Hints:
- By secondary structure, this protein is an alpha+beta fold.
- The protein has a single domain (38-183), classed as tt1808, chain A (Alpha-Beta Complex).
- It is 24% helix and 32% strand.
- The protein is built from 5 helices and 13 strands.
- It has helices spanning 12-16, 39-58, 116-120, 122-130, 179-183; strands at 24-27, 30-33, 62-66, 71-74, 77-79, 83-87, 100-101, 106-110, 134-139, 144-151, 154-162, 166-167, 177-178.
- It is globular and about 60 Å long.
- The model has no long low-confidence stretch (mean pLDDT 90).
Amino acid sequence: MATTQPVLKFTYEDYRTAPPDKRYELLNGDLTMVPAPNLRRQRVRMALSTRLHMFIKERALGELFSAPCDVVLSDSDVVQPDLLFVSRERGHLLSGGENVRGAPDLVIEIRSPATADRDRGYKRELYGRHGVTEYWLVDPTAETVSVHRQRAGGPAVIHTFGREQTLRSPLLARLELHLDDVFSS
């Protein structure tokens, strides 16, 4: 007679004791190692980070963070988005001082071959379920940014921007992000 092994699910407390020399995310209780970004992804992230940081800081809109930064969505879901924005109005999410406790206003994931399916699928749904207002999925190979916005049925793509276009966001009024500048870095 065959016996089934119980499925081991991790919690946030288990996650906190993971070896510090590696990057992990906790997705539905599964501890998942996150690979280091390649140089192309690093360049795109730096370009986005620099431009967004200036825009947010000049207008005192809130705070921008980059990975590794834990976003604790639940006891079984802890993510480290490439970039994330928490508005002044939602500053209470930062009150613990160690991590973000709840859904940021904006989450940006920069795709890689190792994370593409997870970013397009599980994480997109996860961010929608927890109330992330906007989710940008950046594809450095295709040189596009798909902006997902929270709708009644979950996150939906409202626009995909490419090179030679200017990204505008409903969340960040008056933001004009020239994608040639981002993808030429």
